[in-house]
Design brief:
Length: 247
């Protein structure tokens, strides 16, 4: 399938985990993918190599999402390659597990600057480079729907980007740009490495209607649909790909 041929996609946090799965899928669908990473250049290079080995097109771009200077430098690098962005997937995020009583100002500022301010301004600068038919897809979490008090700041950053999507869908509709949100269930990535063991996996299976963890490919399938021409009439929607987690 090459439905995204000629399109340029920027996928934040695509050096590993869910973002890498999304990048590989969009590249397989024909897009040229900017593999964004924060710190791990070798992982980004490996993701680019895997896409190229499969016959796709990709290149790496760096920005710590907490640094506005980095974000501006990343867009300058994208501009040197033509600057147009057709598909933006706001996937990168940092997670710190902390109830409110354990949340320091440093944790709060780090998560808000990375997940919320970084995502907000990447979106602002991407919109300036996006035309008719553009796609913005944000990756959120079901902690905006059910209570997870142990991720109090992470949760409010996800609620923030969901709210951003609603307003932008209204504003950008006139330009033919859609804005949607995908909510993954629990996927075995580095983000969950500190707590996912064989025991906790079976606990997660019990919380999930389909009785298992998801894969990065199952999240990427939904993103690929929203990025495609088939989703031209879908905007301002939040779609959960969680196997029915905590329904
Ligand atoms: N995994 C799950 O179960 C799950 C469930 C619900 C929602 N989600 C959401 O899905 C998305 C992807 O999660 P994941 O599990 O794939 O995460 P992950 O494996 O921890 O990967 C995170 C990615 O984000 C980048 N990143 C992190 N902090 C950054 C920063 N300050 N600046 C720039 N890049 C940064 C990392 O790049 P570097 O390594 O180069 O820094 C990496 O590419 C996130 O939005 C997450 O909230 C995940």
């Amino acid at each position: 399938m090459s439905g995204l041929s000629g399109k340029i996609a920027l996928v934040t946090g695509s050096s590993r985990g869910i973002g890498r799965g999304i990048a590989e899928r969009l590249a397989r669908d024909g897009a040229t993918v900017a593999i964004h990473y924060g710190r791990d250049r070798p992982a980004a290079d490996e993701a680019v190599g895997a896409i190229e080995a499969a016959g796709g097109k990709a290149f790496a771009v760096q920005a710590d999402l907490a640094s506005m200077d980095d974000i501006k430098a990343m867009f300058a690098a994208l501009d040197e390659r033509g600057g147009r962005i057709d598909i933006l997937v706001n996937n990168a995020a940092a997670l710190v597990s902390a109830h409110i009583q354990d949340t320091t100002e440093e944790i709060f500022d780090r998560l808000v600057s990375t997940n919320l301010r970084g995502t907000y301004f990447i979106t602002k600068y991407a919109i300036e480079r996006m035309g008719e038919g553009g796609r913005i897809i944000n990756i959120s979490s079901n902690c905006t729907r059910v209570a997870y008090p142990e991720v109090s700041v992470y949760g409010l950053t996800k609620a923030g980007i969901e709210n951003m999507a609603l307003g932008l869908a209204q504003q950008l509709g006139a330009q033919g740009i859609t804005v949607n949100t995908v909510v993954p269930g629990i996927v075995d990535t580095d983000m969950n490495a500190s707590w996912l063991s064989e025991d906790t996996k079976s606990y997660v299976h019990g919380l999930t209607a389909l009785g298992r963890l998801g894969s990065v490919e199952e999240i990427a399938n939904v993103v690929a649909f929203l990025a495609s021409e088939q989703a031209s009439w879908v905007t301002a929607q939040t779609i959960e790909a969680s196997g029915g987690c905590r329904i």
